[in-house]
């Protein structure tokens, strides 16, 4: 019985006493990395991010380069176009990536099949011209044909077929492919 009382007294003495007010702890005294930022986690009920690629212009302006984005499901053509017209992130822009698409460009898919994506352009896109037009078309073509898995892209502006420049400068209202922009290929 005496041993039980001694053990109980010992255990009671090891407890943490009560305080009337909280007492701060110095950051270096906080154990086990409790102040580290939380690890990024995905709940079992949420789908993991699915990567897709958009294409921006390299720092020297001579080619396109891929940039990875993430969607919570396979990215729709509409989501891919939104990511493209949003432009490079701050980090990408700081590393020299840019876009030939005017900031207020709109782009939405009208029809998407295995062979063809028809894209309706709007906003400030009508103001792009010259080499910027060639580069802008290449950005859209490379992005949509990779992300959507289609073979070619045809463009419309204000519900009318749009003549677009190919890489050689020739205008066409026919569908264009990556091979139409060989000098800008990544």
Map the helices and strands.
Layout (H helix, E strand, L loop, with lengths): L1 H12 L36 E8 L6 E8 L5 H10 L3 H5 L10 E8 L3 E8 L6 H18 L4 E6 L2 E2 L2 E2 L5 E2 L14
Parallel strand pairs: 4-5
Antiparallel strand pairs: 1-2, 3-4, 5-6, 7-8
Helix pairs in contact: 2-4
Please explain how this structure is put together.
The chain has 186 residues and is an alpha+beta fold. It has one domain (50-184). It has four helices and eight strands; from the N terminus they run αββααββαββββ. The strands form three sheets. Strands 3-4-5-6 form a four-stranded mixed sheet. α2 (77-86) packs antiparallel against α4 (130-147). The longest helix has 18 residues, at 130-147. It is elongated and about 80 Å long.
Q: Any key phrases for this structure?
A:
8 strands, two-stranded antiparallel sheet, 186 residues, elongated, alpha+beta, single chain, four-stranded mixed beta sheet
Give the CA-based shape. Answer: elongated
The biggest beta sheet reads: 4 strands, mixed
Helix content: 10-25%
Side by side, the strands of the main sheet go 3-4-5-6
Low-confidence stretches: 37-46
Report Rg: 28 Å
Question: Could you report the average pLDDT, rounded to the nearest whole number?
Answer: 81
> What's the total count of β strands?
8
SS-based structural class? alpha+beta
Residue share in β-strands = 15-25%
Termini Cα gap = 83 Å
**H and E string:** HEEHHEEHEEEE
Q: Helical segment tally?
A: 4
Tally of structural domains: 1
């Amino acid at each position: 019985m005496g041993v039980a009382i001694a053990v109980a007294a010992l255990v009671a003495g090891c407890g943490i006493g009560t305080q009337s007010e909280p007492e701060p702890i110095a950051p270096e005294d906080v154990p086990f990395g409790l102040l580290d930022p939380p690890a990024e986690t995905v709940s079992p009920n949420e789908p993991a991010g699915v990567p897709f690629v958009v294409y921006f212009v390299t720092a020297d302006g001579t080619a396109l380069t891929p940039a990875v984005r993430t969607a919570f499901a396979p990215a729709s053509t509409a989501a891919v176009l939104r990511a493209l017209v949003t432009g490079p992130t701050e980090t990408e822009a700081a590393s020299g990536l840019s876009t030939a698409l005017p900031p207020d460009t709109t782009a939405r898919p009208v029809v998407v099949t295995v062979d063809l994506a028809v894209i309706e352009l709007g906003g400030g896109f009508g103001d792009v011209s010259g080499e910027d037009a060639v580069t802008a078309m290449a950005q859209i073509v490379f992005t949509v044909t990779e992300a959507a898995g289609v073979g070619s892209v045809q463009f419309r502006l204000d519900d009318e077929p749009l003549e677009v420049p190919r890489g050689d400068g020739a205008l066409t209202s026919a569908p264009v492919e990556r091979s139409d922009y060989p000098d800008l290929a990544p």
